[in-house]
Amino acid sequence: MELDYKSEDQIDGAGPIVFVATEGWVDLVAKGHAWADYVPFRHTDSVVYVTDYEYEDIVAFIVYRIESPHKASIQIGYTQPHARRKGVYGRLLVYFEEVLRDKGIRVYETIVSDTNKAMRSINDTREPVGVLSRKVLG
Q1: Whole-number Å distance between alpha carbons of 85 and 81
Q2: CA 20 to 30 Å from 45, out of 3, 64, 93, 111?
Q3: Strand order across the 133-136 sheet
Q4: How does pLDDT run across 33-63, given as a tens digit for each residue?
């Protein structure tokens, strides 16, 4: 896979990412990994994503919200099925942390459903569902 990492300050300025994020959300809800009554992102949220030249599409993304000058929260993270178990999301998470550091953000939080074991391991989330996982960046 030949990957290209990108960052946008507002999801509404990122073109097709809004559609891909919505499709990802529908998939997560269908699998019981997300809450159907939760709105996963706003048009003003930021996004990091990765495209694959082979598939010519967005293969993974993280939509996040800047909560304060030094804190962000992941609203939704998703990897397309054909790109799973290849380390794509893990590398995107590293890129995400670099973007946060460049913005002066030192802490981010996320909630991962207890049914989503793959994502819980990537995010090092062991707390029960509904409890925030917090990471302090070095």
Answers
A1: 9
A2: 3
A3: 3-8, 46-52, 57-68, 71-79, 107-110, 133-136
A4: 777 777 778 888 999 999 987 767 899 999 9
